[in-house]
Amino acid sequence: MTSEEVRGGLRERFGEDILEFFEKSDKRLYMEVRIESLVTIASYIFKDLEARFHTASGVDTRTGIEVLYHFSIEDSGYLISVRVKLDRENPQVDSLSSVIIGAEWIEREMYELLGINFRGHPDLRRLLLSDLWPGGVYPLKADYKEWDKNAVRDRGV
Amino acid sequence: MKLPKIREIIEAVKALVHKPYTSNFPFKPHVPHPNFRGQPVYDPEKCVGCLACEEVCPSDALSHKDLIDDGRPRRQMIHYTDSCIFCGTCEAACIVDNQGIRLSQEWELSFFDRSTAFESIEKDLQLCEMCGSVIGCKDHLTWIAEKIGELAFSSPTLYQSRLKSIGIIDDNIVGVLKDFGRSDRVKILCARCRRKTTLTSDIVPFNLIGDGAK
Amino acid sequence: MAKSVITIGPYHPLQEEPELFRLTIEGEKVLNIDVMVGYNHRGIEKLSESRTFDQATFVIERICGICSTSHPFAYTRAVEDIIGLEVPERAKYIRTIVAEIERIHSHLLWMGLAGHFLGYNTVYMWVWKLREEILDVLEALTGNRNNYAMFKPGGVRRDINPDDISFVLKKIDGILPTIEMLKKAILDDPVLHARLKGIGTFTREEAIDYCALGPTSRASGVARDVRKDTAYGAYDRIDWDMIVTENGDVFDKAVIRILETYESVKIVKTCLQNLPGGEIDLNITSIPPGEGIGAHEAPRGETFHYVRSDGTNRPVRHKVRAPTFMNLPTLKATVPGCTISDATIILAAIDPCYCCTERMVAVRSPEGDLLYNGDDLVRLSQEKTASIMKRMGIK
Q1: Tens of pLDDT along C158-205?
Q2: CA B135 to CA B172: how far, in whole Å?
Q3: Neighbouring chains of B at 3+ CB pairs within 8 Å?
Q4: Cα–Cα–Cα angle for A74, A59, A129, nearest 5°?
Q5: Is C221 exposed, middle or buried (0-12, 13-18, 19+ CB in 10 A)?
Q6: What is the pTM of this model?
Q7: Is the model's pLDDT at B75 over the cut of 80?
Q8: Residue B130 pLDDT exceeds 50
Q9: Which of C320, C262, C322 minimizes the C-alpha distance to C298?
Q10: Is A157 an 8 Å CB contact of chain B?
Q11: Chain C residues 130-159 within an 8 A CB cutoff of chain B
C-alpha cells in the first residue's frame, strides 16, 4: 500500500477516534487517538497493514503523560506513531500484549519508570530497577527527587 | 574429510611460524597510531583563557579557579585526567585555531593517588580598575582586539589591553587617577562600571557642563 | 522426574555482562526459562536530559562497547529528523564506512564466542586475532578502538585522510582469505551441522509476533533490514544484498552472520573508493521544538531512538530501544523443549548485548538453588560436542 492509501484507510475507518492527524513528512505520521480505541487501531495497523511494532515511548509533559506507539510499514519505510494522552494523577491504558507479544517488556519498563498501569497485562512487574528501589518513585517523571542520601555525587576526590 | 583438514593445517603452520600477534608489552613500548586520541595538553603560549573548552566538555573534566586574593591575579585552568573521555570536543571548540588545548598521544595515565590526577596552567587575569571584579584573561582581551582590528577603538577596555600588551602604555599612569566619574571612561573596566561611567558624571555638576553631556 | 531450577548468572566469569537466567529443567529437557535483566541499567535516558544535544552523543556512544556506532547514528538521525535535514554527501559516506567496519568486528566477535561455547577454542583465538586487524583500522580512521566520537547532529566530527585510505584497504584485503577459510571450515564441518541444525527453531509467525529483529528474524524468513527499507547513509547508492534464510535455527543464524561480513567488506571498499568531496558538517546551531525518530541497523538488529525537543539546547525526552530488548523475549519460544547442553548456544545465537538492553545500575545477589552454575553449563555444551565427534569417528 502506498502512504496515500494508508492515510486514507486510517481516516476512513477510524475517523471519529482520531483526535489529531499530523503528517510531518511523507515518511512520518503522528496520530493522536482516544484511549478507548487504542487496541482496535493498534491491531488494525499490526495485523491488517502488516506493520512492525518498534517500541513505545512514554513522555511526561506539562499537560499530562503521553504514550506513543511506533509502527512502521516495512517496504516503504513509512512510520506511524500513535499517541494517547493520559491523566497525570492516575495513568491507565489497556495493554497491547494480547495483540502483540513483543509489547510485554516495553510495557513493564514504562510501568516502573513512569508509573503507568496497563490493564490486562499478564505479568506486570519490575524489569530494570532493583528491589531496593522504593515503590512509588518514578525516575522519568518530571517531579522526581533524589531519594538516596548515601549516593556519591562529587568527582570522588 | 581430508580437504578441510589441509586448510586448517596451513593456517596452524602459519600461526606457528609467525611470531605471536601480541607484543611483549611492558618490555617493548607501545607506540600508538598518529591518529590516536590521547590526553589533552594545554599550550601556555597559545591558550587565552576564554573557557570555551570548559563550556563544551561533555564529562565536566575541565574547570577553572580565579585566584585574585594575592597581589598577582591569575586564572588557573585545570584538566582532570580521571574524568576525561578523550573525545576532542575541547580541541574542536578552542578559539585560537584549535591550538590552545590539543590531544596528545599520551595514554599511560595511571596513578596511585587520585587527588594528583590533574594538569593545570595559569594565565594572568585582568581585573576592573574601578571595582576590582574579574573581566577576563589579559591574553583573551588582546586576542579580541586583534581579531576585530580597528573596531577595537570603540572600547577603551579592548584598545588599552592591546596597547598594554605591546608595551606602549604603562599600568600606573592610567590607574592612579580615580575620580569615579566621567573621566574614568578611559580605563580598563568591567561592563557594569563602564555603563556607570558612560552614563553619569559625578564630579562636575550637570548644569555647568558645556554641550557634551547631553 | 523432579524439576530443578538452574540459575545462570548474574555474575560469572564466562559471561561478559551480568544477566540472570532461570531454567526450569526436568531430566535433560528445559521446560521454562525466565530472563531477568536490570543489572546494567545506568539511567542514560534521564542523563540525556541534562546534556546538550551535542554532548549527549558521547553519553549515547557509551551505551555499548561493541555496537558503539549504532546508537549515535540512530540518535543523530533522530535529531536531524526533528528539523528535516539531510547531511552532506561526504558525511553520509564516512558514517556508512564506520558503521560497516563496526559490523565486521561485531560479527567476528560473535563467531569467536560461538566457537568457544561449542568447544572450538582454536576458532575463538584465530577469529579474535583477525579482529585485531579491524580494530587497528578503526584506530587509524577514528582515533580509538571503540567509542569513536565521530558522530554529531549535522555530520561527522573528523575527516578521513587520503593517506589512511590505502592503509585501510590493504588491511581489509589482507583479512579476506582468512575469513574465506573460516567460512568454509564452519560450513563444511559435520560436527557443527549435527550440533547446530534444527536447534532452537524459531518459526516465521513467531518472528512476526515477537517483533524479532536483525539476524534473529532474517533467519526465519522475515526479510527486514532498515538499510534496505529506508534510504539513509550511502546504502541506497551501493549495490549489496540482504541475506535471508528459511529455517530459523542456530545454524542459519551463523550462516547469516558470516555472509553479512562479506557484504560489509564490499560496502566498505566501494565507499572508500568512491568517497565524494565536500563539507562534513552542517554546523547546526539550534534545534526547533518538535519530535524526531531515527533508526539504524546495528549488527544485532534495529536500534530505534526517539527525541523530543522544546526549543532549548537540551532534549526533553530521549527514548532508546536497543535490538536485544526485542530479541530477548524470543528465548521463551526457542529454549523450552531443548536439552540443557543446547541452552547455551541458543542463548548465544541471538547475540545478546545486555548493555544496550538496559540503561541504570542495581546490584543484587541471586537467590534460588544453584545446582549447576554457568561454568558447568558451558562445560556441558563442550562435552556434547566432544561426544558427537567421538560418535562420528572424528578426533
Answers
A1: 999 888 899 999 999 988 888 888 888 877 888 888 888 888 888 888
A2: 19
A3: A, C
A4: 95
A5: middle
A6: 0.88
A7: yes
A8: yes
A9: C322
A10: yes
A11: 132, 136, 139-144, 147, 149, 157-158
**CA C325 to CA C319: how far, in whole Å?**
13
For residue B20, give the DSSP letter.
P
Q: How many CB atoms lie within 10 A of CB A116?
A: 19
- Decide if C209 and A77 are in contact by the 8 Å CB cutoff: no
- DSSP conformation letters of C14-80: T-SS--EEEEEEETTEEEEEEEE--TT-B-HHHHGGGS-HHHHHHHHHTT-STTTTHHHHHHHHHHH
| Number of residues written out for chain A | 157
Which contacts qualify for A121-127: CB closer than 8 Å, 24 or more apart?
A: A121/A95, A121/A97, A122/A97, A126/C38, A127/C37, A127/C38
Question: pLDDT > 70: what percent of chain B?
Answer: 86
Whether residue A73 contacts residue A1, with contact meaning beta carbons closer than 8 Å, is answered with yes
- Among the CATH numbers 3.30.70.3270, 1.10.730.10, 3.40.50.970, 3.40.50.720, which is that of B35-126? 3.30.70.3270
CATH fold, domain A3-90, is: Beta Polymerase; domain 2 (3.30.460)
B115 touches chain A (CB under 8 A): yes
Confidence of residue A24 (pLDDT cuts 50, 70, 90): confident
* Residue ranges of chain C with per-residue pLDDT less than 50: 359-373
- Which comes out higher in pLDDT, residue B53 or A141? B53
